[in-house]
Write a structure and sequence with these properties.
- The structure holds two protein chains of two kinds.
- In chain A, helix 2 crosses helix 4 and helix 3 crosses helix 4.
- By secondary structure, chain A is α+β, with helices and mostly antiparallel strands.
- Chain A has five helices and seven strands, in the order H-H-E-E-E-H-H-H-E-E-E-E.
- In chain A, strands 1, 2, 3, 4, 5, 6 and 7 form a seven-stranded antiparallel beta sheet that branches.
- A five-stranded parallel beta sheet of chain B has the order 2-1-3-4-5, with helices on both faces.
- Helices cover about 40% and strands about 20% of the residues of chain B.
- In chain B, helix 1 crosses helix 5.
- Chain B has a single domain, classed as Rossmann fold (3-Layer(aba) Sandwich).
- Chain B contains five helices and five strands.
- By secondary structure, chain B is of the alpha/beta class.
- The interface between A and B is medium-sized, with 24 and 23 residues.
Chain lengths: ~160, ~130
Amino acid sequence: MSSSTELLAAGGSHEAWRPFLELATREVFQLMLGCHLMPLGDDAHLPLGVTSMVGLAGELSGVMTIQCGEKAAVLMTSKMLGLAADKVGAEMSDALGEICNMVAGNFKNKISGLGDGCLLSPPTVITGSDYSTYSLADSPGLEVQMCFEGMPVVITLQIHS
Amino acid sequence: MPVRVLIVDDSSVMRKIVERSLRQAGLDLSQVFEAGNGAEALAVLQANQPDLILCDINMPVMDGLEFIKQLPSVENAKAVPVIMITTEGSETHVVQALSCGARGYIRKPFTPDQVKTQVIPALAGKV
């Protein structure tokens, strides 16, 4: 387990956290959706029209986002709730928010010192891709790209040290 | 034996998942009460008596820890086992929840088996 204070005090790269971010995401998809995320192939480029965000504050300050296409978001909701995909409606945003919340929580629980010292905001879900964001993040952050049922899922952790 | 359960979580999706996990754990749910936060749950308990409460920690209005601190003074909740289901997974949170009266603690993400492992002992004698 990495120590959050050691890494942050050293002003070090957060690159060491990448495997934990990837593992935290894989576990959520495996346990709650019953599916395995795969490496993202080159041919899996689709618009990422759904963005789920959870803020982190305290020992680690930043934003975690999960981006995917609408078709992927519907399928995630379908698998999470055991519903047919054509029955998925308004609960999609709630489901995507919960997925991001669980990934963020699972991630911080894997980093020594963050479980207690880092608080999570309620999730926010944005639908659409025609927007830009401005972040106070002052480090490169982490991005993990994975493939969910042939569709891309991008998990990003922007960090403000 | 049929079981009445109160599920407290600010996500309606998560409430549905918890209910499904309880059914997958083999529980015969006769009634499922839902609440979006601790204050709503206290209101539900004014008129209903569950056999089991499953509760998130991070919720608006009244969080899960504050909710379970108030349960000893609620007639319909006395002796009702409470199991926390939350993304907060640190030992501090677990100890805090157990010292507030929680009977069990399940970290999200979870499997139906993990739910079963916590719920069945808490309902000892009722299922």
